Amino acid sequence: MIPLRDNIPARSLPFVNYGIIAITAIVFFAQLAEGTDDASLVERFGMIPARLTNPGQTVLIPEYDYVRTRQGIEVREAEPRPAAESAVPVWLTLLTCIFLHGGWLHFLGNMWFLHIFGDNVEDRFGHIGYLIFYLAGGVAASIAHLLSAPGSMLPTIGASGAIAAVMGAYLYLYPHSRVLTVVPIFFFLHMIVLPAPLFLGIWFVIQFFQGAFAITAVESTGVAWWAHIGGFVAGLLVALVLGRAHALRPPVEMRLPHTEDGFSARPLRRRGY
Question: pTM for the full model?
Fold first, then answer.
């Protein structure tokens, strides 16, 4: 499912969300400039669980050879090599890893989801509060992955966990919103409007079952599913606690729409907003 937009307007310019996207893009382009044969940024700033759980241990990065055979291309495991030294204290890689990505699809997918859901969460948290929330959500997601694979020597990178925290907060803050979604069915693309809880609920269930199936095979899957799960739950709980404590800005009120999908709704602005 690919979200196109939601029907909740932001009352102010989400410049923190735009800033996060811009910084992440700069880092990604630095990775591209580095080249595919040199992954030092990933190894120097990515979170490698074994570095945190076994300080002083030599981290070995798996290497593979691609051999052409009559049956096609065969992947063979080669001699592993030592990883580049961390450029920051290893505990700080819990944070720095969320600004790195593994490719165009990884980067664009994450930034699009952040663009769709981040502005509304920033609207409720406030600019400074949202920045703290996003960074803390990324750290919480990294810790969740660390607990699920404490001995892994694969660098963990990506903003997915931090964005999952944003999505978890969105689920609590906007339970009545709707998301215009593209759903591929066989070879055709269908545009449908889904309630946000349904969209986010399906997303979370997928992450949960993928995480459950891969909990003993993180090295082979290459995806930090439990970072997604941990980030989502952390974001949901933070929004729940702050919402119950009335520590968040009130939501933008919406007129009841006359259309079925709700995308004709217009915000009612209160004085002082």
Answer: 0.85
Report the CATH architecture of 2-58+85-268.
Up-down Bundle (1.20)
Tokens 């969460």 correspond to 121
Q: Are 108 and 234 in contact (CB under 8 A)?
A: no
Q: What is the mean pLDDT of residues 101-114?
A: 93
Long-range contacts from 218-221, C-beta under 8 angstroms, 24+ separation: 218/148, 218/149, 218/152, 218/154, 219/62, 219/149, 219/152, 219/154
pLDDT tens-digit map of 190-235: 888 888 888 888 888 877 776 666 555 444 445 678 889 899 999 9
Q: What six digits make up the tokens of 159?
A: 């903003």
- CB contact burial 65-88 (16+ within 10 A = b; e otherwise): eeeeeeeeeeeeeeeeeebbebee
Nearest to 144 by CA among 242, 62, 47, 20: 47
Share of the chain above pLDDT 90, in %: 49
226 half-sphere exposure, CB direction, 13 A CA radius: 16
Which long-range contacts (C-beta less than 8 Å, at least 24 apart) are formed by 99-104?
Answer: 99/23, 99/24, 99/27, 99/45, 99/159, 100/27, 100/28, 100/31, 100/41, 100/42, 100/45, 100/46, 100/157, 100/158, 101/24, 101/28, 101/31, 101/157, 101/158, 101/159, 102/42, 102/157, 102/158
Ranges of each domain in the chain: 2-58+85-268
Residues in CB range of 68: below 8 A, 6 or more apart:
74
Q: Quick: pLDDT tens for 134-189.
A: 999 999 999 999 998 898 888 899 999 999 999 999 999 999 999 998 887 777 88
pLDDT at 272: 36
For 235, list phi and psi in degrees, rounded to 5.
-65, -40
